[in-house]
Amino acid sequence: MKLRKAKSLATALRWRERGKKVPFVLGLLEKKLGSPCPYCQKELTLKNVSLDHKEPFRTAAARRDLEEHYRLDVPKNLHLVCRRCNKAKGNLSDAQYRKLLRFLATDKHMEAAILQKLSQSYLIYERH
Ligand SMILES: [Zn+2]
Hints:
Elements: H1 2-10, H2 21-32, E1 49-53, H3 60-64, H4 66-72, E2 78-82, H5 83-89, H6 94-104, H7 108-120
Antiparallel strand pairs: 1-2
Bound molecules: zinc ion.
Residues 37, 39-40, 42, 81-82, 84-85 line the site of zinc ion.
């Protein structure tokens, strides 16, 4: 199951050394499944886990640019988060999304409402 998930998560990555993608993602899964999502603290499971770029692709064009993939699809820029947070984060950076979460945490109702909206929206990079 983990291997299948690793293969599926690695599909979108563009690495010069193709053979290293899946083992890298598998390693992340081995280490992080059962741990809390770094953003919402919900437990990461095979069902909800997703691969996030800390520094994201900013535009749809960047996502189609192979050089941008080589720059952003690197181990230090990739981490596992829950799918809901990945969607809500969209094309915000790790620092920006953490800032947003800190801000939203000051109002629990607003936090729930905004995160719900964000996690349902599809940003540019999700369109193909
Ligand atoms: Zn999360």
